[in-house]
Design brief:
The complex is a heterodimer of chains A (355) and B (283). By secondary structure, chain A is of the alpha/beta class. Chain A has helices spanning 2-30, 44-58, 69-77, 92-97, 128-135, 145-150, 171-183, 185-190, 207-217, 227-232, 252-258, 301-314, 317-320, 333-343; strands at residues 34-39, 61-66, 83-86, 102-116, 125-126, 162-166, 203-205, 221-226, 236-237, 239-241, 247-248, 283-291, 347-348, 351-352. Chain B is mainly alpha-helical and 283 residues long. The chains are: A alpha/beta (355), B mainly alpha (283).
Chain lengths: 355, 283
């Protein structure tokens, strides 16, 4: 008798398993549309806010997984999401490797700030040379004469410099290392650009929140993080020397200034070390990436239309105005126009979705 | 079909699922790590170069293998006196007393704490304390990670050894007492020799657990991908580098992480095998 009960139970479980996917698809067609997206953590504070607003406005729900830029690209390659998000644009080689043509939509401009934890020091200025020296491990004490020389008014403690970097691969690291490569030959030669690097010095923490937490818990620490994470935890950030020689702190205005230059039609451009004298030099676009032909993996036309409609709203003045609330800078008009033009090239079965 | 046969088939089926899953895991790990071994050969295991920059990509597992082994061995050494005394306390000296019950519950509780909570405690409580003691690298590194690992494996070693110490036949102990042996003499000459294999096995199993521990270690070890040059230097472990880097990894890097996973799988497999062998051989 007992065996029979087990068997019945097992059969019942199998039945339940085979039933559930069918039920889900039925629910999907009747319920409001859900868009699935995944990728970068750097713009997440902004995305979380506007995705939520869009749901309230239109009922279209967008679930976003902050799994990193690389994860976003991989999920798009596997065709399991409606759109991905990345802080590092796909190179020509990357684009070649994708199963179909992919377009980039810039969504917002962000800054990577140099955050530090030094009690009593609130206006640190870092020249390009100092950044190289600190992140190459050549300066190990905060009262180093080189730092003093650059910051004459400050009393710097005799404290060890603890460099904190990302232990995971990250678009934030990509923006930071792109800037470092532009300002330092030594860096370009020894370290280079990438989402993950062979660091000459420093300890790693996972994710922007991890680095922010480690810096705020560690006296003498210095590291790079997405600006919102520094503002949220009230961590001090340094003024960074830009290409005109000015010391600029990351603000909505100075980050916007970095994005004012020429932007190519496919919007793939790094904004670091901009030659605008007012610009904050470690700035960058963050992008949403999606397939140009939206009919893949049995997606419906409704799903495709909802995706591009949402993205069209995301680059509109309406949504862009929200960016400042979480310390990102809105897209410059030229970039937003280009994004809209790209969205109008997106098709479903060869037919443009937006007119 | 009679019910006996049905049961047999159901059981067979479910056992095969386990076999299938394990086999599939090993297969996909091997399959995934082929590019890494093809590119770097077995030098992958002995190289200490870990450079993920595009164009200069080269991967070697030695920093992580050494980090894993050093932290785990250090954790074992730190936990040994503590868990051994605790198991004697629980299994012999204060066996069955209220005190032992309270302590036993505490040990079980310790085993149930999720690893991330250990990590948080290590980060916010242990680390500042170590900084005050003057531990370099702001309290991050092999030493801190080993302490946390030790605390994490103490409950495993303790409860396993306690069980084994309690299994020592009373007749043996009573015989020793009747000959006038003191409690410590009974422990040294009767209990430890007869429970030896079980106690050793329990430490080997806890060592195996320390090898694979991820979250708490990654929060405290400093995640520097270099071979640690001392107890207080920063480093990284196999489990921690996988957890940190798989998200953005692709191509050769992903394959190298897979290969590290395979190596970790092999090392823990070997350790567990040794544990089982000792139990069998010495029991």
């Amino acid at each position: 008798m007992k065996q029979l009960t087990i068997l019945i139970l097992a059969l019942f479980m199998m039945q339940a398993c085979s039933n559930s996917p069918k039920k889900k698809t039925e629910e999907k067609s009747t319920a409001k549309l859900t868009l699935t997206a995944a990728g970068a953590t750097f713009p997440m504070p902004y995305y979380n806010m506007v995705f939520n607003q869009y749901m309230v406005k239109t009922g279209t729900q967008i679930s976003y997984g902050g799994i990193g830029s690389g994860g976003g690209i991989r999920s798009l390659t596997d065709k399991v999401i409606d759109f991905g998000a990345t802080d590092a644009y796909l190179t020509d080689a990357n684009l070649q490797a994708m199963p179909a043509e992919v377009v980039h939509i810039p969504t917002v401009v962000g800054a990577v700030v140099i955050a530090y934890n030094l009690p009593g020091v609130d206006s640190l200025k870092l020249s390009n040379q100092l950044l190289e020296d600190i992140f190459m491990g050549k300066i190990t004490k905060w009262n180093d004469p080189k730092i003093k020389e650059n910051n004459p008014g400050l009393t710097l403690p005799e404290m060890a410099v603890t460099v904190v970097v990302r232990s995971d691969g990250s678009g934030t690291t990509h923006i930071f290392s792109d800037f470092m490569t532009k300002i330092s030959n030594l860096w370009a030669e020894k370290v280079g650009v990438g989402k993950a690097l062979q660091w000459p010095v420093g300890m790693g923490a996972k994710g922007n929140p991890g680095v922010a937490g480690t810096i705020s818990q560690t006296q003498g620490a210095i590291g790079y993080i997405g600006s919102e994470f520094a503002f949220a935890q009230k961590i001090q950030t340094a003024k960074v020397q830009n290409s005109a020689g000015n010391y600029i702190s990351a603000s909505i205005a100075s980050v916007s200034a970095a994005a004012q230059g020429q932007i190519p039609d496919d919007t793939r451009i790094m904004l670091t070390n901009s030659d605008n004298p007012e610009s904050y030099p470690i700035s960058g676009f963050t992008w949403i990436i999606l397939y140009k032909e939206q009919n893949y993996n049995n997606r419906t036309k409704d799903q495709a239309l909802a995706t591009v409609t949402f993205l069209d709203w995301l680059v509109s003045a309406d949504a862009q105005a929200e960016a400042e609330k979480v310390h990102y800078s809105p897209l410059p008009v030229a970039a937003a126009e280009k994004a809209k033009a790209i969205l109008r090239t997106i098709t479903f079965d060869g037919e443009a979705l937006l007119k | 079909m009679n019910s006996d046969k049905i049961t047999k088939w159901v059981l067979l089926l479910s056992s095969f699922i386990i076999l299938f899953v394990t086999g599939g895991m090993i297969f996909s790990l091997i399959n995934g790590s082929i590019p890494a071994f093809k590119n770097f050969g077995f030098g992958f295991i002995f190289s200490n170069n870990w450079n993920p920059t595009e164009g200069k990509e080269i991967y070697g597992a030695l920093p992580f293998i050494s980090g894993t082994l050093i932290t785990s061995v250090a954790a074992l050494i730190i936990s040994l006196p503590l868990s051994f005394s605790a198991s004697l306390f629980l299994g012999e000296y204060f066996r069955g007393t209220k005190m032992a019950k309270v302590l036993g519950t505490m040990v079980d509780l310790l085993a149930g704490i999720p690893s991330i909570v250990y990590g948080l405690w290590g980060f916010y409580v242990l680390r500042p304390f170590l900084i005050d003691l003057g531990i370099p690298n702001q309290g991050f590194g092999i030493f801190t990670a080993s302490i946390i690992l030790a605390v994490m494996i103490i409950p495993y070693a303790t409860s396993l050894s306690t069980e084994i110490i309690m299994m020592v036949p009373n007749e043996l102990k009573e015989a020793a007492y009747s000959l006038g042996a003191t409690k410590s003499e009974v422990i040294i000459n009767v209990i430890v020799p007869s429970a030896r294999s079980g106690i050793i096995a329990s430490y080997i199993l806890s060592f195996g657990r320390a090898l694979g521990e991820t979250m708490a270690v990654t929060m405290l070890i400093g995640n520097a991908n270099v071979i640690p040059n001392g107890l207080f230097s920063t480093g990284n472990t196999m489990a921690s580098v996988i957890a940190n880097q798989f998200g953005e990894a692709d191509g050769l890097k992903l394959s190298s992480l897979m290969a590290i996973g395979l190596l970790l799988f092999l090392i823990t497999g070997i350790i567990n095998g040794i544990g089982k062998f000792i139990i069998k051989k010495m029991a």
